[in-house]
Amino acid sequence: MFNNSETQQQVAEFLLQIKAIKLQPTNPFTWASGWKSPIYCDNRVTLSYPTIRTYIRQQLSSAIQETFGSVDAIAGVATAGIPQGALVAQELGLPFIYVRAKAKEHGRGNLIEGEITPGQRVVVIEDLVSTGKSSLQAVDALREAGYTVAGLAAIFSYGFDVADENFKNAKCPYFTLSNYNALIKYAEEKQYVTAADVEMLKKWREEPSTWGQ
């Protein structure tokens, strides 16, 4: 699988510089799940920075070819995976489709938007992997529609053990350009956070569902 330390550090640097990732160990965020978190990630912000957007597009594209070999199409996961997936599809000269969070409630009632041939080999694009639950719902939808999912690629992962377990159980290999460990290492080196903050950030990753309660 993809494991390029230079890319991991560069992506971590970009995400911190443009505040796509914010670290607030002493003033935590509340996620939609209700979890308290010292980190918040919104990789949509990368789309507003052409140089960073281009770097991510190129790195995802080359890593997909290196990791999954020849594929027939790219599938984005709604909503944040759609623009990233479309950029990668353009870079690789491949068809693009995307998977809705739920089927459309009018018209044709589509869950998957776009046209490719069932049986084709597809790579799924996400912006972020947390537990992997929403990503794997898209993988299941594609498989049920008759597509072969080669794997999933994303910009960043929190590195939760549950995500690795979920992807393993789904028999869906995945990689991310950067991850939590690379981010924290870079953030400490560049003094985005203190040594005490780092310990707090590491503890959160061990027990994210109960941290801060």
From TrEMBL:
It catalyses: orotidine 5'-phosphate + diphosphate = orotate + 5-phospho-alpha-D-ribose 1-diphosphate. Pfam families: Pribosyltran. Pathway: Pyrimidine metabolism; UMP biosynthesis via de novo pathway; UMP from orotate: step 1/2. Keywords: Glycosyltransferase, Magnesium, Pyrimidine biosynthesis, Transferase. Residues 60-177 form the Phosphoribosyltransferase domain. Orotate binds at residue 130. The keyword Magnesium applies. It comes from the Bacteria. Its EC number is 2.4.2.10. InterPro entries: OPRT, Or_phspho_trans_dom, PRTase-like, PRTase_dom. Its cofactor is Mg(2+). GO terms for biological process: 'de novo' UMP biosynthetic process; pyrimidine nucleobase biosynthetic process. 5-phospho-alpha-D-ribose 1-diphosphate binds at residues 100, 104, 106, 126-134. CDD domains: PRTases_typeI (cd06223). The keyword Cell wall biogenesis/degradation does not apply. GO terms for molecular function: magnesium ion binding; orotate phosphoribosyltransferase activity. Coiled coil: none annotated. Transmembrane segments: none annotated. Belongs to the purine/pyrimidine phosphoribosyltransferase family. PyrE subfamily. Homodimer. Catalyzes the transfer of a ribosyl phosphate group from 5-phosphoribose 1-diphosphate to orotate, leading to the formation of orotidine monophosphate (OMP). This is Orotate phosphoribosyltransferase. It comes from Mucilaginibacter conchicola.
